[in-house]
Write a structure and sequence with these properties.
3 domains, 3-stranded antiparallel sheet, 7 helices, about 50% helix, Znf_C2H2_type, C2H2-type domain-containing protein, transmembrane, transmembrane helix, membrane
Length: about 200
Amino acid sequence: MRNNINFQRNVGLQPENDMFREQEQHKIHVETNEWRCGFCKKSFRAEKFLDQHFDNRHYNLLNDSQGRCMADLCGALHCDLVADSKKFKPKCNPAASARNRHICESLADSCFPLNKGQSASRLHEFFLRQFCDAHSCSGGKKAFSRGGKKETSVFYLAVCIFIVMLLPLFYVIVYLHQREMRNGVQVLKRISKPGLKSKPS
């Protein structure tokens, strides 16, 4: 129970309803190019090969009695925006947008029923604003318009660190250059004084 709301087991976003949950929990990421099956300990070079292994050898462990693939909800929950925000977005498809909005509203109704009190009602409204209202081809609303995670560009951060590291070096070079200029002027003044005797040849 969270925010005085009892979540039902039939809610689509419950982890128990993920048909691939058992398989995902048995993926062992050993190192960069090594994945291991938690059921039979077989090793693979990439996660996609482990997924194929699950499909071929451990298909019987899928929870397809009442479960669903959570990736089916990605269109409704804007997973594409989170996964790759810089990826080129195709033109809006009104039929797909309407279907995703319907799925999104169904999730809001099942996760936060309006008849469960004020907290559920507020969460229902917030969910609709954050996720469902953006399913439109008019281009008005954007997903995560309030409270979205702001991602700092790695390039921007790297440039800032580089500049901060170069500033002291720049000032040291300027200081040394100014000091050399002052020493050079003094040497010139000494040489140009009248009355210096020239060396005999």
